């Protein structure tokens, strides 16, 4: 791209003048960010056009990954990495008096997602482009991303995330590619030549305008598209009377609200009309736009499944199924059976959770009014599906009601997604087993060939090469650079895991990352951190099943011991938390408050704060994760077994050489298979044991409270004013959830095992060479968790595609 530093510097300065009218001396860091970003975007534009032409000429099958969430984070550093200009730009900017790291800080995170599901979609985009697949994202350009979290007096406060305030260098508005999406109205049936035609009358039209973001592949000129849709009002010509004009303003505001904000709830379904509108808006726009591209090939729609795959990320985009049926039947004239065959062969679906409270069920009254034609189609899908079931299970009405797509006046989106697609996958081996054997067992009995597992992955380009450049260099110096394109080769590090000089360098890098995080913490909290302490980190969304509560109760216990037992000797430990709670999730917010109370008491207590410190870092986000994860020694992955579908943070920590303390849940199970249980700290109930307790109803947390002094002491501290509880009953709700309401997440049941695992960490950390060996082995065995592996599996097993261009080996 730039031949050398001098060329870069002169092009850069020219752009500074032409774009901002500023000479170098007057440029701010923000100016540098904007100019550099626009240069990279424009440069990628060439390859983008070439990639698109290539797709068309070769008639490559296109994958469209539909997701309500893409948690991208920042793009500057990653794009520089992928176009292979990171070093040159860093050095050149340094010559000009700027630090690339500081310039990167100017970019707002694209926080268009809640957590794991949205971040997975972003990792997948990076892998699709880097492996040279024709695979694109389809989502919504929310004006406001996930809220910004502030902690005030220990409580979470949400502020709007106005991420577009300073503009977005990466997007291109494409008004020429707009489509129209229709809501409300009524369906009229007309008979034409003996065939029924369905026409929706008096519908409200919304214009969907795409904003395209180039997704640049690593090391070769392959650029895919993330197409984010924005809702705009349709301009009517007859606004001549004042009442019409005010009516138009109302309409216009209601339209714009569709792409206004991302719903900040995860794992908690709420039947909000606006959310349903968002879903259909995205599905309809994406399907129409993909079919427009397909149309240019001049092929029959019979060939659609050979040329197009629609993948739906969780059930949120399930309306892709009836929308495709609608277009095939109403616009293309297909009969039901042919349209159904084409649709099911085109669509595939990933399940991301078995939590029943997250399952989407839309009220029939809502869907049928908002989307009358779509609802008719869903009804017909349900009718035919139930008829098939009746044939198979005659008289078994109970089973049929249990499986139906529509029952009890609700449309069950997961059922619609399974029935209407050719592939259903879970996101880790254990999760897929639970789907097959438990949650979706009756569907598995019907369609065993549809179910498959695709264990999640993370892009090692963002999470290792970009987040931890020094470790990446050390790895390359040691085993060569083949691991970059074949991350499985990280396992060649196994041979140096005990090499003293390698270990020393590995540790120095971790230490440097810890110093950097310590500086961040000091800057943001005013409290100093000892970089020689064990950095023990739990960062993820706040949810009961993720058990941040188990972690903080154990910290409270450590504090109690340090205060009461003068012989208690521990390696200094710094516990770090980061988590956003859904704004309406009362219990989760109480846990944030508890963590902050504990942090403030411990950090101020001179009797312990040389050995124990606790931090809650506010506004956990992708860019903060990139600072925290490379600095971690211990990774907390402690969900109630059977509840965490996969987890992906677990993989990021592993890749960066942290040791996991975790339950046998989600992908932790496969991590243990890779690295060996000796190199992790596995504890707690297994998924089948949890299930047995649930079935038998035999778990009695109250007994643990009376039997175990440690537990009794900490649960009492939740309600009696003292070190952690500032007023009588401050944490009654937490106390009750554990003691009176049966401790749904088995926090107390796993407490003893968890404390034991922590004690084992304390012992293990004292043997520095052996700890380092384990850490190196974790990095070495993490390659399989690259999303490149995951995406290759989706490509082969689900989408039936091959790379259309290969890595550039230059
Ligand atoms: C659910 C809902 C429910 C309705 C309201 C809006 C909303 C928004 C997001 C979600 C997603 C919940 C599912 C989810 O995020 N699952 C996570 O997916 C990760 C990627 O597969 C996986 O690693 C995590 O274990 C899983 O919890």
From TrEMBL:
Its EC number is 2.4.1.1. Keywords: Carbohydrate metabolism, Glycosyltransferase, Pyridoxal phosphate, Transferase. GO terms for molecular function: 1,4-alpha-oligoglucan phosphorylase activity. It comes from the Bacteria. Gene3D superfamilies: Glycogen Phosphorylase B. Coiled coil: none annotated. It is an enzyme of class 2 (transferase). It holds the Pfam family Phosphorylase. InterPro entries: Glycg_phsphrylas, Glyco_trans_35, Pyridoxal_P_attach_site. Its cofactor is pyridoxal 5'-phosphate. It catalyses: [(1->4)-alpha-D-glucosyl](n) + phosphate = [(1->4)-alpha-D-glucosyl](n-1) + alpha-D-glucose 1-phosphate. Belongs to the glycogen phosphorylase family. Allosteric enzyme that catalyzes the rate-limiting step in glycogen catabolism, the phosphorolytic cleavage of glycogen to produce glucose-1-phosphate, and plays a central role in maintaining cellular and organismal glucose homeostasis. Phosphorylase is an important allosteric enzyme in carbohydrate metabolism. Enzymes from different sources differ in their regulatory mechanisms and in their natural substrates. However, all known phosphorylases share catalytic and structural properties. This is Alpha-1,4 glucan phosphorylase.
């Amino acid at each position: 791209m730039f031949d050398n530093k001098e060329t870069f510097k002169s092009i850069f300065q020219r752009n500074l003048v032409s774009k901002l009218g500023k000479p170098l001396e007057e440029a701010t860091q923000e100016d540098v960010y904007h100019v550099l970003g626009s240069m990279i975007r424009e440069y990628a534009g060439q390859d983008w056009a070439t990639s698109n032409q290539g797709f068309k000429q070769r008639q490559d099958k296109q994958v469209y990954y539909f997701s309500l969430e893409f948690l991208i984070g920042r793009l500057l550093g990653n794009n520089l990495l992928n176009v292979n200009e990171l070093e040159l730009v860093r050095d050149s900017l340094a010559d000009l008096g700027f630090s690339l790291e500081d310039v990167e800080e100017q970019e707002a995170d694209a926080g268009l997602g809640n957590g794991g599901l949205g971040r997975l979609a972003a990792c997948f985009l990076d892998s699709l482009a880097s492996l040279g697949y024709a695979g694109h994202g389809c989502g919504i350009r929310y004006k406001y991303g996930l809220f910004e979290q502030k902690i005030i007096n220990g409580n979470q406060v949400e502020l709007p995330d106005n991420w577009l305030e300073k503009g977005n260098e990466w997007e291109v508005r494409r008004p020429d590619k707009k489509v129209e999406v229709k809501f409300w109205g009524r369906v009229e049936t007309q008979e034409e030549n003996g065939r029924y035609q369905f026409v929706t009358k008096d519908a409200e039209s919304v214009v969907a305008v795409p904003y395209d973001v180039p997704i640049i592949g690593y090391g070769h000129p392959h650029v895919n598209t993330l197409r984010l849709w924005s809702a705009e009002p349709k301009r009517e010509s007859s606004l001549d009377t004042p009442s019409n004009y005010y009516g138009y303003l109302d309409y216009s505001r209601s339209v714009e609200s569709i792409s206004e904000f991302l719903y900040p709830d995860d794992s908690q379904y709420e039947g909000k009309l606006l959310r349903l509108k968002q879903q259909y808006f995205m599905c309809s726009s994406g399907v129409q736009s993909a079919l427009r591209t397909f149309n240019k090939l001049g092929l029959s729609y019979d060939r659609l499944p050979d040329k197009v795959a629609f993948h739906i990320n969780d059930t949120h985009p399930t309306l892709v199924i009836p929308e495709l049926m609608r277009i095939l039947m109403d616009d293309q004239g297909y009969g039901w059976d042919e349209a159904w065959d084409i649709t099911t062969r085109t669509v595939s679906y990933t399940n991301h959770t078995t939590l029943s409270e997250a399952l989407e069920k839309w009220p029939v009254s809502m869907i049928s009014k908002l989307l009358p034609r779509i609802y008719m189609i869903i009804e017909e899908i349900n009718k035919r599906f139930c008829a098939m079931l009746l044939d198979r299970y005659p008289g078994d009405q109970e089973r049929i009601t249990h499986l139906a797509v529509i029952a009890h006046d609700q449309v069950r989106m997961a059922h619609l997604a399974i029935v209407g697609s050719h592939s259903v996958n879970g996101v880790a081996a254990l999760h897929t087993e639970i789907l097959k054997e438990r949650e979706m067992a009756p569907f598995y009995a019907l369609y065993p060939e549809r179910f498959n597992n695709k264990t999640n992955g993370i892009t090692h380009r963002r999470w290792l090469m970009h987040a931890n450049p020094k470790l990446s260099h050390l790895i390359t110096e040691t085993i060569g650079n083949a691991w970059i394109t074949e991350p499985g080769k990280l396992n060649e590090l196994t041979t140096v895991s005990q090499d003293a000089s390698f270990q020393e360098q590995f540790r120095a890098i971790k230490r440097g990352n810890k110093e950097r995080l310590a500086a961040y913490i000091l800057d943001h909290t005013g409290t100093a951190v000892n970089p020689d302490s064990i950095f023990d980190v739990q960062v993820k969304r706040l949810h009961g099943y993720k058990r941040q509560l188990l972690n903080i109760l154990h910290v409270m216990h450590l504090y109690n011991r340090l205060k009461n037992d003068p012989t208690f000797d521990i390696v200094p430990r710094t516990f770090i938390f980061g988590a956003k709670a859904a704004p309406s999730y009362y219990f989760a917010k109480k846990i944030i408050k508890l963590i902050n109370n504990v942090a403030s008491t411990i950090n101020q207590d001179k009797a312990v704060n040389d050995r124990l410190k606790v931090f809650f870092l506010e506004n956990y986000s992708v860019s903060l994760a990139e600072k925290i994860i490379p600095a971690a020694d211990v990774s907390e992955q402690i969900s109630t077994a059977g509840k965490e579908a996969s987890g992906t943070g677990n993989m990021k920590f592993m890749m960066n050489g942290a040791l996991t303390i975790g339950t046998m849940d989600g992908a932790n199970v496969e991590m243990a298979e890779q690295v060996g249980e000796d190199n992790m700290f596995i504890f707690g109930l297994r998924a089948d044991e949890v299930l047995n307790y649930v079935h038998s109803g035999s778990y009695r947390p109250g007994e643990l409270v009376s039997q175990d002094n440690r537990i009794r002491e900490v649960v009492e501290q939740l309600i009696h004013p003292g070190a952690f509880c500032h007023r009588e009953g401050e944490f009654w709700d937490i106390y009750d959830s554990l003691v009176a309401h049966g401790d749904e997440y088995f926090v107390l049941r796993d407490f003893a095992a968890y404390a034991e695992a922590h004690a084992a960490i304390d012992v293990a950390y004292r043997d520095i060479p052996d700890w380092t060996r384990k850490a190196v082995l974790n990095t070495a065995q993490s390659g399989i968790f690259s999303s490149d592996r995951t995406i290759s599996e989706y490509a082969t097993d689900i989408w039936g595609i091959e790379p259309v261009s290969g890595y550039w080996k230059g």
